[in-house]
């Protein structure tokens, strides 16, 4: 009897690379990049979950976070790598775009409904399919306040009875980027896969609807898209606020596990989870922090299903993490 091989361990198709000029990369950058911080999707799946996580790209030697540049954008568009973009620039608390992510059963239907309602306001929203659902993008004429973007979309979604993930214990629903009203200095918020790139999990490129399935047609289409203006956004949100049902997110309280009563090292008894996504808690790596790194506080991933499994995406070993916490591993005799 042959052992079953996990699907993510089977050979995958190679990405279809396309030629990209630096001019195209610069144009894309002017539309979608609001700050130089970014994430990169792993080229190989996680051994345990098979997921392709996004991590802060860092210099191999200094471990300092890399800044997004035109060459990296070019490689993203060509398919050589895949980047994630942050919405908010903390210096202005503004975003160049709004992205609505839906990865549940009826997400495409709900996003099309949102798109139609947006069109009634004269707002042009773009549908981009994704691996498990779809994204809806709104491009702005200039960076606009993140808070107003969220007020606008949340009120529209509630009026249309579109489910919002996390609201009233809603497990499935849309997620709105930017995910925060504002960020403190040194914070990054949540990233989303940059459009027109290849998803590493299936090596598929997702194009915007209403344009040809090639980079030249997509770029031409994006040039002609009507942008949302700050004046219009202020008009749409006049007298509105973030709905009470949305509200600020409470601090993450990691659930307890039976193993916590059996002694031994438990990572969540020594670090506080900062965010929760992709089946993991994410927080600052103690070893990185000891060396003056991980200013974003998101290098350490801890499995929600089983917190005995944790990993520093900057390369720190378990031994280094334990030592930084003053809980060194026992030497085997």
Polypeptide structure, described:
The protein is 23% helix and 18% strand. It has helices spanning 22-32, 70-78, 107-120, 146-159, 215-223, 230-236, 286-290, 318-324, and strands at residues 38-41, 54-56, 83-86, 94-102, 125-129, 134-145, 175-177, 191-193, 198-199, 204-205, 275-277, 280-283, 300-303, 310-312. Helix 1 (22-32) crosses helix 2.
What proportion strand? 15-25%
From the alpha-carbon coordinates, what is the Rg to the nearest angstrom? 21 Å
Helical content class: 10-25%
* Outline: globular
N-to-C SSE series? HEEHEEHEEHEEEEHHEEHEEH
Assembly of the depicted chains = single chain
Main sheet: strands, sense, barrel = 4 strands, antiparallel
- Spatial sequence of strands, sheet with the most strands: 2-1-3-8
Mean pLDDT: 87
Give a summary of the structure in a few sentences.
The chain is 23% helix and 18% strand. With 333 residues, the chain is α+β, with helices and mostly antiparallel strands.
SSE diagram, text form:
Layout: H1 22-32, E1 38-41, E2 54-56, H2 70-78, E3 83-86, E4 94-102, H3 107-120, E5 125-129, E6 134-145, H4 146-159, E7 175-177, E8 191-193, E9 198-199, E10 204-205, H5 215-223, H6 230-236, E11 275-277, E12 280-283, H7 286-290, E13 300-303, E14 310-312, H8 318-324
Antiparallel strand pairs: 1-2, 1-3, 3-8, 4-6, 4-7, 5-6, 9-10, 11-12, 12-13, 13-14
Helix pairs in contact: 1-2
Sum up the structure in keywords.
single chain, 333 residues, alpha+beta, 4-stranded antiparallel beta sheet, 8 helices, 23% helix
């Amino acid at each position: 009897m042959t052992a079953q091989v996990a699907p993510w361990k089977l050979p995958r198709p190679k990405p279809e690379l396309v030629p990209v000029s630096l001019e195209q990369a610069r144009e894309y950058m002017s539309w979608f990049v609001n700050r130089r911080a970014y994430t990169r999707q792993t080229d190989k799946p996680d051994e345990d979950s098979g997921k392709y996580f996004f991590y802060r790209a860092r210099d191999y030697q200094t471990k300092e976070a890399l800044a997004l540049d035109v060459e990296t954008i070019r490689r993203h568009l060509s398919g050589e790598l895949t980047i994630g973009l942050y919405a908010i620039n903390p210096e202005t608390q503004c975003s160049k775009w709004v992205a609505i992510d839906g990865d549940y059963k009826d997400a495409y239907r709900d996003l099309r409904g949102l798109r139609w309602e947006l069109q009634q306001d004269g707002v042009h929203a773009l549908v981009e399919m994704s691996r498990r659902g779809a994204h809806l993008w709104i491009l702005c004429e200039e960076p606009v306040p993140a808070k107003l973007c969220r007020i606008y979309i949340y009120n529209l979604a509630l009026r249309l009875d579109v489910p919002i993930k996390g609201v009233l214990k809603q497990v499935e629903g849309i997620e709105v980027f930017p995910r925060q009203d504002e960020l403190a200095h040194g914070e990054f918020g949540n990233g989303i896969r940059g459009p027109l790139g290849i998803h590493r999990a299936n090596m598929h490129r997702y194009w915007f609807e209403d344009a040809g399935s090639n980079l030249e047609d997509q770029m031409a289409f994006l040039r002609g898209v009507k942008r949302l203006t700050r004046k219009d956004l202020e008009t749409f949100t006049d007298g509105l606020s973030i709905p009470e049902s949305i509200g600020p997110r409470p601090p993450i309280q990691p659930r307890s596990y039976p193993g916590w009563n059996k002694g031994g090292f438990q990572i969540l008894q020594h670090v506080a989870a900062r965010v929760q996504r992709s089946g993991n808690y994410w927080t600052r790596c103690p070893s990185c922090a000891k060396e003056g790194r991980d200013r974003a506080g998101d290098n350490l991933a801890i499995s929600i299903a089983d917190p005995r499994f944790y990993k520093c995406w900057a390369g720190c070993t378990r031994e280094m993490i334990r030592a930084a916490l003053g809980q060194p591993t026992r030497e085997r005799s």
